[in-house]
Design a protein that fits this description.
Layout: H1 13-27, H2 31-44, H3 49-61, H4 65-77, H5 83-97, H6 101-114, H7 119-131, H8 135-148, H9 153-161, H10 171-180, H11 187-203, H12 207-224, H13 234-245, E1 261-268, H14 274-282, E2 287-289, H15 295-303, H16 316-333, E3 339-344, H17 352-358, E4 363-368, H18 371-379, H19 393-414, E5 418-422, H20 423-428, H21 430-440, H22 487-493
Helix pairs in contact: 1-2, 2-3, 3-4, 4-5, 5-6, 5-7, 6-7, 7-8, 8-9, 9-10, 9-11, 10-11, 11-12, 13-19, 15-16, 18-19, 19-22
Length: 495
């Protein structure tokens, strides 16, 4: 919470008491109650910038990014101190919630105009420039951060991820190795740098050195996990898949009623080509790309506890209300959209049962890639701790087998509403693959889809730079470069 520059007369005792209650509720994580409490305070005393700031913070967590922006604007209009912090928060909402990187860039630059040394704003600006595909501008901002703080690990790692090297002796490689040699380096920074180093060794064709870097990076990522964060549990994963498979098939339903938008779900394993497919489709005139929308997961957690068991008794009227909530969430993010809007969240493969209950005629694009390439790519990626299976080769293999079992079940349920899109086919014979997809979606083929790398659509995944290149085949069969190191993975996949 910030402190206002403006001085206010003492609050009436009952308002001061409400404000204290609001603060206590916020600190206790009771979001809805805290929102109501702050609104009550501000209804009586609207000139409290700190309270508007706190209300904005809470509204975002309540799933109301537009309301959060309005609250932050009120805080700014009341001359809150450290306005750069408010602008930073606005930028995060534009970038992550509303998928509007141009406005995010504006907010971050406004924050830096106030405080040029505001490292967090510059780092977020750099990330946003990556999303927009401006490699050189992003790299320049990371270099500025490193000029200000030469030992900063995260900007160095991100700069390395933007850089192409041909030799293991490159200056940037040596800088990464030198930084990693520091004894005081936190585990999360060690992980970021280790993944970046592995990538550079891979580029240089030094596959044994690359694998060793990735192995240490995954170990560091594991060490950085909060003690309360659960690790991967194979028995629990099997139980989850069993519970999803045991659900009764969705009841026969009438066709979806006409709406302004029609969601198309792109899902599959991480690193299976989902980002590439969405970027290709972004070039089609009849498609709006939504990126990785959190809507289905939010609905499952918020409205369908215990999930997935509650799906078995989901009443038609509640399903209709949840469907409307999903569509409202899409329209909130893309108010000018119409027709097809893609929801490209790979792990929505857990939610296909929910999708078919809310949207009986939904179209689902399932991206598929060689499991060895898929799993290896996940092992080489600095995923969040929400994906703990990616830290261990044997766990990756087990997770993939469980996913295969679940998808085999979903295919019997979804029938012709689901289309497999194979990564290797897409990169080898793109026009045929894209024509199959557009036909499946009821659209005509557009040649612009073959020139997808020029699409201005923002990309917010680890594949940002791969999908801004013309199609290439060098990632197909990549696992063979690392075969001597993959025995635990290969055994698990064949188990």
């Amino acid at each position: 919470m910030t402190t206002s520059k403006m001085k206010h007369p003492p609050l009436p005792p009952h308002v001061a008491q409400r404000l204290a209650q609001a603060s206590a509720l916020r600190q206790a994580g009771k979001v809805a109650e805290a929102v109501a409490a702050y609104r009550a305070v501000l209804a009586e005393v609207p000139g409290l910038p700190d309270s508007w700031y706190n209300l904005g913070w809470l509204l975002r967590r309540a799933g109301d990014p537009i309301g959060a922006l309005e609250a932050y604007d009120r805080a700014l209009s009341l001359l809150i101190s450290r306005p750069e912090e408010v602008l930073l928060n606005k930028g995060v909402i534009y970038a992550d919630d509303l998928l509007d990187p141009a406005k995010a860039e504006q907010a971050y630059r406004a924050a830096l105009a106030i405080n040029p040394l505001y490292a967090e704003a510059r780092f977020n600006l750099s990330n946003t420039l990556e999303d927009l595909g401006d490699r050189e501008a992003a790299a320049a901002e990371y270099r500025t951060l490193l000029d200000q703080a030469p030992d900063a690990a995260e900007p160095l790692a991100r700069l390395a991820n933007l850089t192409v090297v041909t030799s293991p002796g490159d200056e940037l490689v040596e800088r990464l190795k030198s930084t990693l040699a520091r004894n005081d380096l936190p585990a999360d920074h060690r992980a970021s740098l280790g993944f970046a180093l592995g990538r550079l060794f891979d580029q240089a064709g030094e596959f044994d050195m690359a694998f060793d870097a990735y192995r240490h990076a995954n170990a560091a990522s594991l060490a950085s996990r909060h003690p309360r964060m659960p690790g991967y549990n194979r028995a629990r994963q099997d139980e989850l898949v069993d519970s999803l498979i045991s659900l009764p098939p969705p009841a026969s339903a009438a066709a979806d009623s006409a709406t302004a938008i029609s969601p198309v779900f792109i899902l599959g394993q991480f690193r299976s080509g989902s980002t590439l497919l969405e970027q290709i489709l972004s070039a089609h005139s009849a498609i709006t790309t939504g990126g990785e929308l959190p809507l289905l997961g939010t609905i499952a957690a918020r409205d369908l506890s215990p999930y997935p068991a509650s799906l078995a008794s989901l009443a038609a009227d509640k399903a209709s209300a949840l469907r409307d909530a999903y569509l409202e969430g899409v329209m909130l993010r893309f108010p000018d959209s119409f027709g097809i809007v893609t929801d490209k969240r790979p792990d929505n493969f857990y939610h296909i049962g929910l999708i078919l209950r809310l949207f009986p005629n939904a179209r689902i694009l399932h991206t598929v890639r060689d499991p060895r390439d898929t799993c290896l790519s996940n092992y080489f990626l600095h995923l969040s701790h929400d994906q703990p299976h990616a830290l261990d080769l044997a766990d990756l293999g087990h997770h993939y087998r469980a996913y295969q079992r679940l998808m085999a079940h979903w295919k019997t349920i979804a029938g012709d509403r689901m289309l497999d899109v194979e990564y290797d086919t897409l990169v080898r014979n793109p026009e045929t693959a894209i024509r199959n997809v557009t036909t499946f979606l009821g659209l005509s083929f557009e040649a612009a889809c073959l020139d997808f790398q020029t699409s201005p659509a923002p990309v917010k995944t680890a594949s940002v730079w791969q999908v801004r290149e013309p199609l290439y085949q060098r990632s197909s069969g990549r696992w063979r470069n690392y075969e001597p190191h993959l025995e635990p993975l290969l055994e698990a996949l064949n188990d």
